[in-house]
Each structure stands twice: as structure tokens, then as C-alpha cells.
Amino acid sequence: MKKERKIIIQPLMTEKASILQGERNKVVFIVDRDANKIAIRKAVEKRFNVKVGKVATVNVGGKLKRLGRFEGPRSDWKKAVVTLQEGFKIDFFEGK
User: Residue 7: its pLDDT value, please?
Assistant: First the structure.
């Protein structure tokens, strides 16, 4: 099994992810494409010291992009929506 630093690549900061985090206590991450839900759950719990209620994953296909007459695909990636249990929270932008 990969280490939790390799499983969680980065948090996904979009407008929809911010709404999910504020209203429904869900956090969205970009994760390794080979990671399963159990590995993602363990990595989030160990790295952020929280309890995870549920994990949902989505495989996102890369778009075809063009630069002039040349075109090529962007990389495929995996998104994980992690629901935290009641009373736990992850703050990515903590003020000092």
C-alpha cells in the first residue's frame, strides 16, 4: 500500500467544493488513480487526524486540448469526495 502522502495529491479548491465543505462537511481531494476508497479513508484519517464517514470517488477523463494545429489529451485523474463525521473539520486556510 502506498503512503498517505502519495495517495492524497492535493485538495481540490473549486466553488462547488467550497460549498460542499461549508454546508455538508465534505472535502474534495485529487487522489492517486490506483487508490481505492479504503486507502483514501485511512490516508485522510492519518494525515488530518479526523474521522471519515464516507468516501465517494470519480474517475475524470482528460480533455482534448489544442495549441494551434497541434492537439493532445490532458491526463486522466481521480477525484475523491470525503464526508467527515459530525464534529470534525479540515481547514486548509487557517489564519494565525
Answer: 95
Over residues 58-72, the pLDDT tens digits come to 999 999 999 999 999
Q: Which domains does the chain have, with CATH numbers?
A: 4-84 (3.30.70.330)
The terminus-to-terminus CA distance of the chain in angstroms comes to 35
Supply the pTM of this predicted model.
0.87
The pair phi, psi for residue 8, each rounded to 5°, is -90, 115
The C-alpha angle 3, 48, 41, rounded to 5 degrees, equals: 60
Q: Return the C-alpha cell found at 90.
A: 479540515
78 HSE (CA, 13 A, CB side) = 16
Q: Which H or E run contains 38? A: helix 37-48
The parts of the chain modelled with pLDDT lower than 50 are: none
